[in-house]
Amino acid sequence: MSQSAEPKLPQSDLPESAVRRRMLQSFGWFALAATVPVGVYQWITKSPKLGGIKKPLRQVLDANEQIARTYFSNANLVKTYPLDEAVRNPRFNGLDGLRTPVPTDWKLQIDRDNRSNGPRDPLFVTMDDIRALPKQELIYDFKCVEGWSQIQHWGGVRLSDFLARYQLGTRSGNAPSPDHTNDLFKFVGLETPDKGYYVGIDIESALHPQTLLAYELNGQPINAQHGAPLRLIIPVKYGVKNLKRIGRIFFSDTRPRDFWAERGYDYYVGL
Ligand SMILES: Nc1nc2c(c(=O)[nH]1)N[C@H]1C(S)=C(S)[C@@H](COP(=O)(O)O)O[C@H]1N2
Ligand SMILES: [Mo]
Question: What is the mean pLDDT of the chain?
Answer without folding.
Answer: 84
